[in-house]
Amino acid sequence: MTTPRYVFFKGEFVPYEEAKVSVVAHGLNYGTGCFEGIRGYWNAEEEELYILKMAPHFERIHQSARILYMDLQYSVEELTKIAIELVKRNEFKEDVYIRPLLFTGDEKIGVRLHGVSTEFTMFAVPMGNYIDTTGIKAGVSSWRRVDDNAVPARAKITGAYINSALAKTEAYHNGYDEAIFLNADGHVSEGSAANMFLVRNGQLVTPGVQHNILEGITRHTIMQIAKEELGINTEERSIDRTELYIADEMFFCGTGVQISPVISVDMRPVGTGQIGPVTKQIMEIYNRAVRGQHPRFQDWVTPVYKPQNVALGGTAGVTA
Ligand SMILES: Cc1ncc(COP(=O)(O)O)c(C=O)c1O
Description:
Elements: E1 6-9, E2 12-15, H1 26-30, E3 33-35, E4 38-43, E5 48-52, H2 54-67, H3 76-90, E6 96-104, E7 118-126, E8 136-144, H4 161-173, E9 178-182, E10 188-191, E11 195-200, E12 203-206, H5 217-230, E13 234-236, H6 241-246, E14 249-254, E15 258-265, E16 268-269, H7 277-289, E17 301-303
Parallel strand pairs: 8-9, 8-15, 12-13
Antiparallel strand pairs: 1-2, 1-7, 3-6, 4-5, 4-6, 5-17, 6-7, 9-10, 11-12, 11-14, 14-15, 15-16
């Protein structure tokens, strides 16, 4: 990873080397924090960097903080300004990933969420593809998805990612590229760091929000593209494991993952074993929209260097 020049830390922009936390920091020891992942896309033709769906991400970190009784002292609008300034100060002219992080910063021993102070930081690093987007192999994990009544998946909680990491590494050891989580009741939930969609009989199907998923911003985006551009509706419902084996198409989606088509699941080809036509069309539209090249979805992106447009990525997007 290329390290950034500046990060936002303790209320100001400081050189990367100066942003340090103690080994005793509460959040480091107990995983008590929440975060976001936001992408910025470089448009070489326009010499512009577009940040995707900024406001929905900052609304979601506020929701995560609320679930964790944590105080995020910056409003959504202030956070968007910090993100823009951060990218500008680092003079990024390539695709980037922006990571806002709120964590319990006190140097205190004792697991709890009350009586500990929070710290907020934001950094950005250059980032290309997080996972292959030309067709991956997925496997159902032996690890179950964290339950809303145990570790709420709806909040993007730092400590919860041990669940994702266990599934991802198991998938890797089993020769897969990505894991598919089932819930404790055996229904499909999501990937290790991505939501998922099936195509069945020309319709999209995705697990509903009650299935211990992160309420993904890209998930909402996909549903909007499908409906408005392709006239395809999405059914949000329970998905059985064996439905994965008979789906016509399948893909993961997320800010990091973008759209990653699945061409085999548990050693069975998905559909023809090639990227399907619906997935292909959605990818094509998504890839244009994120770089500010789709007129209908222009308000999803915020330009950093020539801010004549003030779109902050829309407000809807956290809930479907
Ligand atoms: C567990 C999990 N599910 C889903 C997603 C996709 O969410 P989004 O599209 O908001 O990035 C992510 C990515 O951050 C994730 O970590």
